[in-house]
Structures
1.
Amino acid sequence: MKTPVCQIAIETPLRRLFDYHPVPGAVPGARVRVPFGRQHLVGIVVSHMSHSDVPAEKLRSIEAVLDPAPLFSAADLKLLQWAAEYYHHPVGEVFATALPRLLRQGRDVAPVRRSWRITDAGRAALAQGALQRAHRQQQLLGHIATTGECDESALEAAVPGWRPLARALRDKSLLEFHEQSLTAAASGGTQPVETGPVLTGAQLAAVETLTAPGLAGAFLLDGVTGSGKTEVYLRAAGAVLARGGAVLVMCPEIGLTPQLLERFEKRFEVPIAALHSGLTDGARARAWHLAATGGARIVVGTRSAVFTPIPDLGLIIVDEEHDASYKQQEGGFRYSARDLALLRAQQRGVPVVLGSATPSLESLHNVTLGRLTHIELPERAGSATPPRIALIDMRAHPVNKGIATPLRHAIQRHLDAGAQVLLFINRRGYAPTLLCQSCGWVAPCNSCDARLTVHLARGARASGALACHHCGAEAARPERCPRCGYELHPLGHGTERVEETLAEFFPGHAVERFDRDSLRAPQQLHAAIDRVHSGSARILVGTQMLTKGHHFPDVTLVGVLNADQSLFSTDFRAAERLAQTIVQVAGRAGRADRPGEVLIQSQYPDHPLLKTLLDSGYAGFAADALQEREAARWPPFSRLALLRASDTQPEVALKFLRAARQLATPAAGVALLGPVPAAMVRRADRYYAQLMVESSQRTRLQAFLAGWVPAVEQLEKPRSLRWVLDVDPLEVL
Ligand code: ADP
Ligand code: ZN
């Protein structure tokens, strides 16, 4: 006799769903509590089957249904199952990625908005300076006083660690707490609050394409920096909202969420859910729930937001689609949120817009194949003109502390004209190396095949410290060379050293440093951005952080201090990344009325990449780079997967990968390459190696992996060994 069963996704490393006796209410997409071994776990019902391979007497029953209505729709479940299959990752862990922690723990989410308000007593206390001894409480109270009523999720971003302070203030009756039902709050209209500018011709054409009735398909919005892509997103979103649809807006990282969020909030008076890694568990669960129950009409989020259920989804926007942050590069489930966004849109029959000034070569290739419709915004919006870009030959000019004379003069000129200057250097810390000039000793990391970076005074270490940028290890900075006793000197330049040099060269012009060390918390970044906007900061120096999306209208000069590092990298994507970085950072110059200038320092000004980029722009570079990829059969002209392994002992990972290779059944059109040791073999006391699988066809690669990965899983291996499969890896070093 056939027994009907429920198939349930449970967070375990096992690559399968689990069968249980159904109970009423256990509908696909709902959370349930089930016995699992000796534990009781939360799972998600994926499907109902009329028959199970498990004998009926061994089937256990669902203990409780946790959701009155399914959290995931059939389409959401399909997307998650597809992702598990495509990335060859255990389905239960994939589902876990899609669900906020509190919901995973089986908790209920009250659909309420929690906010804090200052009381009259609070205002009086502020005015009288009554809290001067409780500095942080005063700061929090001041913050809430300026914003009026403050949402908990916003507080989290603005004043980390605010909760105990808020409680103390409430006990003194200086703050009060409000809860509002979100279904009640979700009553805003869809009339634009702030109307946008008059569109340029190109924007208008883009908006017409993207607001056509019944639109579906995938689009590449390829617009130079400052061309007004965000304005196009807003118009396209507006059309969807007006029809009663909801919009998913993806952005690459938490640092950029506030800007994008603000522009949507100013434009639309509808409930918006923001989902990023900076939220507390509670705030995250509430925002997710608001999206999943249809309360939010706009969902703005980073990578994992691609899995958030959104009823009535009518449009997906992926801003800065080329950004590497869309690919999960740590842990086991290495998905690409951009690729999944394309799939999700296709499954739902809704349009998806990938936007970038420097589209990935994958996306440009997809345009050629007709999978993406190309929409171009070739000119800057408003009165801004494209910046003038030039190379500075570092061999031909005197260079003082990493800054060549022409750049130094240009900085002075722009500062004298009352403008701001931005300098990009791709390295944080003071100097990448601590060197003994007598015997050549360099300070090494004890856990990695890497040198330690010199940092200036930091926290408790007033004399400065050494830090490993690969494993995070820190060490005191030795006074003298441990080998020969001679003096040690920092070699090379990082952001901290450039900051010091600029203070010396341009006294009286405040320098603002943007890197992960100076801006650890989101509110530090906001404060720094505020100082740039208010004009109190005159020179900006920073890493990658400065290249992304920011709009600083008074910056007229951008200097790239060292473009050379990645010119000779062996990673097949290094050239693409470098070109994107240069074009993006150059795009920060002259975004308002005054024209911009970009100066790139290089020891290799004749390098073909730099020449092409300057002569024919990103499009010219991309055309060349695609030809090279095709000749070398790299993606997008082939498909890759990397089996990566590591162990605490040398050679063990390599041995495991050799055994994995042995297991492979030869398949037509699929090649295995390696295994080889990783470019940096030892990292955080583990030894890394990798085996590459290559095919010209995705379906062949997938068919091969489907047979091979479960066999690899069965291989005998030491407990210390870790392995992971990375499908469509971004880096292959
Ligand atoms: P992108 O995202 O392409 O870099 P943004 O959308 O941030 O560009 O636009 C750059 C600047 O130009 C913003 O200050 C924006 O308000 C402004 N802008 C956009 N479209 C127009 C327009 N049609 N007319 C005038 N200004 C515009
Ligand atoms: Zn290290």
2.
Amino acid sequence: MRKLLVTGGAGFIGSNFIHYLLNQYDDVDIINLDKLTYAGNLANLKDVERHPHYQFVKGDICDKKLVDELMPEVQIVVNFAAESHVDRSIGSPDDFIKTDVFGAFVLLETARKNRIEKFIQISTDEVYGSIQDGSFTENDPLMPSSPYSASKAGADRLAFSYYVTYKLPVIVTRCSNNFGPYQYPEKLIPLFVTNAIEDKKLPIYGDGMNVRDWIFVDDHCRAIDFLMDNGEVGETYNIGAGNEKTNLFITDLILKHLEKSDELKTFVPDRLGHDRRYSVDCTKIRKLGWQPKYDFEDAIIETVLWYKRNADWWKQIKSGEYLEYYKQQYQTA
Ligand code: NAD
Ligand code: TYD
């Protein structure tokens, strides 16, 4: 039996990862440590809440006492917990520094003292910053340009330092933009799908020509699982599926699949410091034997259908704190 501490498991990727592991294996036990911030949602895990191999603990990764209690119970740590939305980091960066940097430090320090067998730090391709041509490899310098990506870069290199200094068996992953079920509807794809379903405007930043490399969340989960077994400690791995698309392309695709009018497209002032293009070279993980499984268009169709069928899930979210946030952003609510 392998026992994992999954942090941030009530969020988008973490909850997909927990579903993935429990579907895939009979011999994993999972403790999900999550603070349940605005982005954490236990509805994402309703179907597994009574699973014999799953336990939820509400708490903060910055809470040393709590992390000290949980760490001796597990062999593997997968750290998803983070403040994750670039726009929020521009408005108020404090929690990004606290959770993404200090929280990662608390986990690393406690893992070191407990001789954890593997520590997977979920970083992001955004730590490299923007690239005009070509793709970043794992050896390229980090040039993060938002408070979000800078805080993630801090944790990314802090994790590496724990390998170099203390020989903590750390693996760092840098994945590109994910999409799929249970993504909080403030990120591009779930925001635009749910707005379009409700015939609300789709706020396209700047000229809509910024490029992101999209990966279906299940492929990301498979890559993390693959690296837990096959990744080399002390190494960093880019993860991506080679689907570079402009935001306008994504917008048109969503409108097409929902059969909605072009008139919902609304150009709004650009995000501050908006990275033009992200692109990662994934030769390293591909050489190890991992490759994405999902076709991009099929996965988009599946995702659009999921949001159509699960309107209760996102309508519940699109109220309260969420509406306050959007009123401040665009006065559109
Ligand atoms: P998310 O915002 O949906 O979920 C984050 C989760 O972390 C939430 O459940 C939240 O409650 C929890 N959390 C926040 N602060 C916490 C704290 N102090 N203690 C415990 N739990 C806390 O984020 P996501 O999109 O699922 O991203 C997960 C991870 O993957 C993040 O580390 C992010 O940087 C990284 N990542 C995301 C993407 C993407 O496209 N979404 C791509 C690459 C990497
Ligand atoms: P986002 O989903 O926030 O991910 P990230 O900024 O971490 O890549 O945004 C993806 C792209 O979509 C990014 O170029 C910003 C753009 N975008 C919009 O044009 N409008 C929006 O309302 C949002 C949320 C994002």
